[in-house]
Amino acid sequence: MSNHKYNIGSYEKRLQNFDWSISKQELSYKDGDNINIAWYCTDRICNMGKAKKTALIWEGLTGEEKRYTYNDIRLASNTIGTFLKGLNIKPEDRVCLFMDKIPELYLGFLGILKIGAIAQPLFSAFGDESLLIRLENAGTKAIITQKKHVSKVRKIIDRLPALKHIIIVDYDGKKPLQEREVSFSLETSTPVDKFDTYPTKAESPSVIHYTSGTTGQPKGVKHVHYSLISQYLTAKWTLDLQDDDIYWCTADPGWVTGTSYGIIAPWSLGVTQCVMDVGFSAEKWYEFIQKHRITKWYSAPTAIRSLMKAGDELVKKYDLSSLVHLTSVGEPLNSEAVIWSERVFGKPFYDTFWQTETGSIMIANYPGMKVKPGSMGKAFPGITATVVDPETFEPYKEPGKIGLIAFKPGWPSMMRTYWNNEETYKNKFKNGWYLSGDRSSIDNEGYFWFVGRDDDVINTAGHLVSPFEVESALLEHPAVAESAVVSKPDEVNMEVVKAFITLKPGYKPSADLELDIMNFIRKKLSPLAMPQAVEYVDSLPKTRSGKIMRRVLHAKEWGQDIGDISTLEND
Amino acid sequence: MNEMQKIILDYVIAEYIDDDTEVTVDTPLISGGIVDSFSMVSLKRFLENKYKISIPDDKATPEAFDSVNKICILVNEFTKK
Considering only CB atoms, which chain A residues are within 8 Å of B36? Predict the structure, then answer.
């Protein structure tokens, strides 16, 4: 029996008289004060006497390791901030981070926030079209990237007049820099010790993360510096981050988990965190935990299922006894994965639920609380969560009824708008509730049980993919006449993308054409959006008004009842 | 370098490399972050189309795809059947 004392203590007791002032007091923040996330993650921790404490242990592909103390990350963020100011980047300008999980990504994020600019992290595997849409929407002024990704930026730069600077962090001088490109090396820059952090306030914008919807282009979710209040406390109580922990968040900061809980939360808590910039391999992951004696681990169901596939025997080769508390996010964590982790690690993975829009954990299984394998857990203290009727938006009173997961607005890290898309933002609120777009039920003990999305958005390995975006890109392929994109069940990724396609005259179905279409989407959008299966059809199911009925194809893929097809054109 | 190594290496460079990163038959592809787990599906499909084979999912592991040389071993296993 573990005698580990968890931060949260008793979940039930925390529910009583909860107030976010707990977080504010611990952060020594008073309403109306300046609040800058980057300052809280660096200068404040140094001021608390932890300047020499390790903030980041980074490991790269060839096993090279870099370590940064809290003073190092303070200096690095000052240095990057100074460089950006030198490029005339102003407060609230959007600066995109388009990098692998290298130290400059983490430190660049802080540097951007320190000058009051808005960080716009984007997944480095995005293709040029995905990048274009998001940079165009945000009116991004600068992008920080690596030479391996700069060719994607060069392809679209002519269509991005607002983009003034392409900052390359690993320029080697072998080829000349091109238009608007500039080199920046953290290692050779003189560290900046004295730096005036921009006096951002609670409602000053901090981060824009892009997320996908069923229709329309990706939406830029705007967060503010006040989000720290939620991120700090949820990490402390849900992930149980403590002063002597070695923490590993496996998420990429191109997505919200990688910033909220891969940068902001651990560093505002003064915790040592590890980052591994290596592609997935079960051996490498276990080696990493063993080598760095990881204690707290925040990962994703897809990764956990991939580890399960690698087998129990492999786990026995490593000393993973350092692990204390394991948490998961991204998609529903299936009960088999929870039971498996308890068997092989001696600890279950605790599922957590939240979204890009919520900015922080909303529903979770908490340390010390009884875990019901397969359940999402219960609402975080201070969060009013319910399940509402999809027609009336009234909360269901009876347990077990499936409805839309909804939250009462007002928690600190709630998104403030969708960038340049206020109308869509407003549509997320009905009858005084924020609608998550996910469906679940609540049992008689208050545990939430995930059912699925309420729309056509595909959740693949915890990342949302818009069928609309993939269909639009498919139409640009010379062979494709029409397309419909739905999810397909997948053992590891939960869902993957499947495309139904009709071909233009002169094209014949073939395996090579299928591969060509797959690669076309992979390079244009991203590997996540790439259809893992393409089915050629003579025609697509449509309503009489010509709208493609994705749900018919979806039902077929999932072996479900097709439902009402009275509006189907003909078949 | 034999013909299979060359064909697969050329394909990897053409499809998965955007810059002048040097890739050899031993370069780690999956653990090296050159080919992610999603892109591995398209690489598998290329091998199946090219060599008229079917690689079962349980054989298409990140380890088996981690370099051109390892991929050649896997492909040979199925082409010789």
Answer: 125, 279-280, 527
